[in-house]
Amino acid sequence: MVAGVLSLTRNGLRDWILQRISAVVLAVYAIYLIGFLLMHPYLHYLQWLALFHHTWFRIFSLLTLVSIVMHAWIGIWTVFTDYVHPYWLRGILQTLLVLSLLALLFWGIEILWGIY
Amino acid sequence: MAEMETIKFSIYRYQPEAGSDKPNRPYMEDFQLEVPKGSDMMLLTALIQLKEQDETISFRRACREGVCGSDGMNINGKNGLACITHISELKQPIVIRPLPGFPVVRDLIVDMDQFYQQYEKVEPYLKNHQPPPGTERLQSPEDRAKLDGLYECILCACCSSSCPSFWWNPDKFIGPAGLLQAYRFIADTRDTAKAERLRNLDDPYSVFRCRGIMNCTSVCPKGLNPTKAIGEIRKEMLKEEL
Ligand code: SF4
Ligand code: SF4
Ligand code: FES
User: Fold this and answer.
1) What is the SS3 assignment for B188?
2) Measured by CB atoms within 10 angstroms of the end CB, which terminus of chain B is less buried, N or C?
3) pLDDT tens digits along B184-215
4) What is the pLDDT of residues B29-52, one digit of tens each?
5) Which of B158, B160, B208, B213 for a ligand 2 pocket mutation test, highest count of atoms within 8 Å of Cβ?
6) C-alpha distances in angstroms, A60 versus A72, A114, B122, B165?
7) Which atom from ligand 2 is nearest to the alpha carbon of B217?
8) What is the CATH number of the domain that holds A59?
């Protein structure tokens, strides 16, 4: 048994499933947004704003944001543990990663729910 | 006298205790071997003949027929067994290096300790908590067939040594060879420790470092498919945990 204190769930199977589920959410969101942009070739601000006024779309966006955080946490944690060997540097990088992802999440929530 | 042709080799040399005439750091050394024209000699035979030219060339071998797994090495950039590799199939000069990612002991001989430690971790033996029957534990031909493609592994390490995930984390990632054996016992209907085996592997490293690159499968000299076995382990874990 080998764990990683700063891995997302410290469980390989759970990390693996979360990474796959979040990938699907990211893909669906990206496809939806691209579709939306294609359907509004002359998009202007009010239409864009209207999209974000739907509660379901805000929740969808929030889910996507959470998915980005999980996906990146698991993926970048893996890259660090593959390539960064001095344990102190690895620790610093992992901490910075977690903090910036959390900052991104809070900032995103503030933006999404700050839309009038 | 038969017509001869010259085969060129470039062989990785490392002799930590080398004398003054040879460096004691790794270097590549060129060799040439005269073989009868059109001969379809195996690489191992060629190496043995080269050893007659220079008796310090060191490599492991035993069965010389692809059964013992001793002579895994990196041949023109691809891991394989010297004893079942025809020199006629190889581009010259034939570049021979020790298995990548493993500490080199001397020339083509690598330290296999970590590889065996990972193998040991998967407890590669039958565990059955029921009282033993009077004779043997029987298995239906269908159940026995589930072990095909798993039990044939000769632990040559060609797979684990070509796996980037194993290069980076040889102490934590079991590696394709060990995982193939893990699945060999998970799939065995006579084994009763399946749940426990799966639990021992569910950390972020042991199995899940595999990124499905399939280098292992592409080099296995026995034609086995560790990537598929790793996928099966994940599937079994999902079934167990969902
Ligand atoms: S799976 Fe194939 S390459 Fe890997 S150790 Fe076994 S026989 Fe060798
Ligand atoms: S499929 Fe997995 S085990 Fe095989 S070489 Fe790739 S990462 Fe390694
Ligand atoms: S010498 Fe035994 S496998 Fe090659």
Assistant:
1) coil
2) N
3) 999 999 999 999 999 999 999 999 999 999 99
4) 999 999 999 888 999 999 999 999
5) B213
6) 18, 16, 42, 35
7) 4
8) 1.20.1300.10
Phi, psi of B168 (to 5 degrees): -75, -35
Residue A109: inside a domain: yes
A82: closest CA of chain B, how far (Å): 5
**B77: nearest Cα among B92, B97, B93, B57:** B97
Of chain B, the end-to-end C-alpha distance in Å amounts to: 71
Residue A4 belongs to a domain: no
In a domain, A107, yes or no: yes
Q: Is the CB of B157 under 6 A from ligand 1?
A: yes
Q: What is the tally of structural domains in chain A?
A: 1
Phi, psi of A5 (to 5 degrees): -60, -35
In a domain, A39, yes or no: yes
In whole angstroms, give the CA distance from residue A14 to residue B14.
44
Q: Which residues of chain A have pLDDT under 70?
A: 1-3
ipTM (interface predicted TM): 0.82
What domain range is A38 assigned to?
Answer: 12-113
* Atom number in ligand 1 closest to CA B157: 5
Q: What letter represents residue B153's amino acid?
A: C
